[in-house]
TrEMBL record:
Keyword NAD annotated: no
Tagged with keyword Lipid biosynthesis: no
Coiled-coil portions: none
Family of the protein in this entry: Belongs to the ABC transporter superfamily.
Primary localization class, coarse: membrane
Protein name: Simple sugar transport system ATP-binding protein
PROSITE patterns, A to Z: ABC_TRANSPORTER_1, ABC_TRANSPORTER_2
InterPro entries, sorted: AAA+_ATPase, ABC_carbohydrate_import_ATPase, ABC_transporter-like_ATP-bd, ABC_transporter-like_CS, P-loop_NTPase
Organism: Kaistia hirudinis
Lineage: Bacteria, Pseudomonadati, Pseudomonadota, Alphaproteobacteria, Hyphomicrobiales
Amino acid sequence: MSLAIELKSITKRFGSFVANEDVSLAVERGRIHAIIGENGAGKTTLMNVLFGLLQPDEGEIFIDGEKKVLPNPAAAIAAGIGMVHQHFKLVPSLTVAENVFLGMEIRKGGLIDHKAQIARTAELSQKFGLRVDPGERVGLLSVGIEQRIEILKVLARGARTIILDEPTAVLTPQESRELFQTLRGFVAQGMTVLFISHHLEEVMEVSDTVTVLRHGKEVATRPTAELTKADLVQMMVGRAVSFDRRPRGPVTGKPVLEVSDLWARDERGLQALKGVSFQVRAGEIVGIAGVAGNGQTELAEVLSGLRPASHGTIMLAGQAIQNRSARAIRHAGVAHVPGDRLVRGVDRGASVAQNILMGRQDQSPWSRFGVIDRTYLNEQTKRLISRFDIRTRSPETPVKSLSGGNIQKVVLAREFSGDAGFLLVDQPTRGVDIGATEAIHSEIMRQREAGKAILLISVQLDELIALADRILVMFAGRIMGDLPGEGVSEEAIGLLMAGVESAPAEVA
């Protein structure tokens, strides 16, 4: 079988830091080739070299057997390479079709031919099984639909090889399965897929070949069928990792958060929360499960002061906090790890230290008489970098230069190192590697043991089963069930996620 891509001895340095060291990669045409490794292993750097975003310091690139120099993404696109980035690059105010053809608009008589763009988008959508409404405004769509648009953008530009960087990080399990069907359709038509992922179950399910990177070097390239999940973990991390249910003592604390008959509307003015009631006690982890779009995001926003409630009460340690500002809620004792770390979790242009400081800049000992104590900030940032294993060159490194998983660690380090009694944790391991996920789970359990009340929102059912004392399942803005974390099955949770109220015996 012919090679679609061949990278020979690629080395990429950033100053004294070597991101890729003598990496070679051969990708067969018409295959799904997974690239895995921990955060900072060099996966995205290698793909950015292939896509022309970065220039290799050493090594050669061959596309369909022909040596290529790719000085920019335009050259990579012309060579048939397309890349869908982990964080989407769409314009919310434009339609689907306008986003697909942004920068390469179809024109007629000097004007943009909107009808032609809609027709071509519909044609691509039909051909590749990527269901979209070409005339819908992107700002109103789910992240799953947004990803389809990003893929359509790549296809509209003639890509024969598609790079997907953490494609399922923002998708529900159902959306992930739809994506895998799409990818299999691509390779059936002779296309090639490079698939970067942290989810080993997905790698085992969808890929034909796996390349493992560790510390910027290639560890192995093997047919997926010859490997087990344990083999991949060992190659990635260099040790065994367990994600079994974490042992814990009984919950005996008093209620910290009490939510009663909570209602709220979404951006369209429709009811997103409908009479939600629950409580979280000190030293308890309560999980929230549900397919995306069933009220979890709105619940997190209302609890953190980012969305108003239309009715109901939220009591934190006996104090009403509903419809107070985000700043007031934070000062009342709420720490918030948002589901979208780049939009609400960090300032990408600021340093690691500046992001650790956020929300504390007016508090002692971080500042005195309105002046930041730089020595204290630097010391605490170094301590948190070590504790949370943030892969950064220094506290002054801009957050935008870190991998997605390390950005998440910065958010967790800031939120988990305060004295808040209630932790609102939304998608804590989205886009995070195996080793970091284990460490984050350990930190969440450490917070539980310290007596914190924790509300854990996650689309990963295995994560909820491993960590939660109780699991609340949401459907259409309501809580369908309150399940024990111990002994519950994914099937039982899945029934409630689908809105099936008649539960089996293990749920009841």
